[in-house]
Amino acid sequence: MINGIFKDTMANMKWTEIQNFVDKNALVLLPMGVIEEHGPQLCLGTDIYTAHIYCLAIKEKLEEKGHIVIIAPPFYWGVCQSTAGFIGSFHIRKETAKALISDILLSLSEFGFNNIFGVNAHGDIEHNIAIIEAFREAREQLHINACYAFDEGRIPLFGLKLEEPYLCPIKPQTIKVSKAEVSDVHGGDVETAMIYEFYPNLVDVEKAKSLPPITLDDESVEEWLFGGHIKDLSSQGYIGSPADFESVEVRKNVDDYADIISEAIISRMV
To answer: What's the pTM?
Structure first.
């Protein structure tokens, strides 16, 4: 069990410790997510817990390759566009989220950090636009290597290419870690398994095992992505197969993503 999202982050350090990381030209990992509903079996903090778990694993991979790494306090006041119809999904405006991310990047820059990488575990469109815009402006205005680690398959959907200097393209996962026949779109088997592995007390196991699989056709997925309709599409707030969580190879999943993202970060180091 991991002891909270501040574990091994700046939040648990003294300022003098952070100064030592600045002096060593450490790269910064910024875990990013939201506070939103994830079905009746999962906690609202699922995305930010997941981003933090990934950052801990990425940090270990990067250190094995000789890099000095520090993790910033997690950012979790992001945009919940798709799940806005549910209690528990905090309604943070895109401009508010972007402004806060920008201020975080400015602070890190003023501390003296030059390489800052965002690691996000929330797929909302407006949330990602807010991150992309904040990282682009930080790079252009602060003249730092601010880079958002983003799924390369989604980059064209945002009208972008793969060579933007403020984006760190993540290659798709090629291994299979789930045996479920229904993909985990939101609050399904993989997310349930992730939280159960690291925060077992935050999962209602009996509830998870009782939930039937829910899948969507292409038209419904698009409707869900553009926000506010998930309650109509899934009355309990999940899309996937939570009941299959025990068959997910969680550690393999984390290790693989840590490999993929750490390699992507190294390719964008300056």
So the answer is: 0.95
